[in-house]
Amino acid sequence: MVQLKTETSLAAMREAGRVVAQMLTATREAAVEGVSLRDLDAVARDVLREAGAGSPFLHYHPHFAPVPFPAVICASVNDAIVHGIPDGYRLRDGDLVSIDAGALLDGWAGDSAVSFTVGRARPADTLLIDTAYAALEAGIAAAVVGNRIGDIAHAIGTVCRAAGYGIPEGFGGHGIGRAMHEDPSVPNEGRPGRGLPLRNGMVLAIEPMLIAGGGDRFRPDPDGWTLRTTDGSRAAHAEHTVAITDDGPRILTAL
Ligand code: MG
Ligand code: MG
Predict the structure, then answer these.
(1) At what angle do helices 7-30 and 37-51 cross, to 10 degrees?
(2) Rounded distance between C-alpha atoms, residue 143 and residue 252, angstroms
(3) So what's the pLDDT on residue 1?
(4) From the CB of residue 66, how many other CB atoms can be counted at a distance below 10 Å?
(5) What is the CATH number of the domain that holds 96?
(6) Is 252 exposed, middle or buried (0-12, 13-18, 19+ CB in 10 A)?
(7) pLDDT digits 0-9 by tens, 29-63
């Protein structure tokens, strides 16, 4: 069931979203050559602690995962698409990094992700990342009262496909509120004019994931969490938590 949020709830979600933005800003600043993914997780934990916020990622244990998630961010490097576990891997020049972060503040969740490069960027990676943000922007622009979920999906998918990128099947955005994952699901590709009508007070995490090689296939790592492209090509991910309001889409996970 889709929960509509009141203006008071949206204000509380905005504060949770701000903490997520602070986590992403801090981890991104810390993400230089030689720094480990575990170091980045520690940076994000410090932000949560200072804000008095909890993590919806830590100990999250969905049915597909063999173990609970052990960190407060996902760190997915190069051919990892999403759900990377921050481990001892040290960042190298030219890496493409996606960081996904969540926070729980006063009982409300926020969820957002960024992608960026470390050191000297490959032009192909810059284009992939720029397209991920363009797809996110298109999805947000379609998140208006009177549209349907399919309009968001279609907007995202059109940007990704026009650039020749693949879209991992079966993964996408979601409703968000008291819990990180609520109804409805928000696919990254779909037919316009279809699906649930968008209403004032709906809050959605919109999150395009792009595969550079153009295929849609991926496989999990032996850790059961990290999803990698099967063709070895790189992937990018961008996400915001967005409220649908009578005044238009409102990004809740900005700084
Ligand atoms: Mg996320
Ligand atoms: Mg999400």
Answers:
(1) 140
(2) 13
(3) 86
(4) 10
(5) 3.90.230.10
(6) buried
(7) 999 999 999 999 999 999 999 999 999 999 999 98
Question: Which residues have CB atoms below 5 A from the ion given as ligand 1?
Answer: 100, 111, 113, 239
**C-alpha 239 to ligand 1 mean position (Å):** 6
Interaxial angle between packed helices 123-141 and 149-162, expressed in degrees from 0 to 180 and rounded to the nearest 10 = 160
Ligand 1 centroid, distance to 113 Cα (angstroms): 6
Ligand with an atom nearest the CA of residue 172: 2
Give me the domain span that covers residue 239. Answer: 7-251
Among all ligands shown, which has an atom nearest to the Cα of 98?
A: 1
Give residues whose Cβ lies within 5 Å of ion ligand 2.
Answer: 111, 205
Please indicate, yes or no, if residue 132 is contained in any of the structural domains: yes
Is residue 2 assigned to a domain? no
Query: Residue 185 falls within a domain, yes or no?
Result: yes
Distance between Cα 92 and ligand 1 center (Å): 24
Domains contained in the chain, number: 1
Give residue 111 CA to ligand 1 midpoint distance, Å. 5
Band of residue 64 on the pLDDT scale cut at 50, 70, 90: confident
Domain for residue 1, yes or no?
A: no
Alpha carbon distance 200, 105 (integer Å)? 22
Whether the model clears a pTM of 0.85, i.e. scores above it, the answer is: yes
Question: What is the reported pLDDT for 120?
Answer: 97
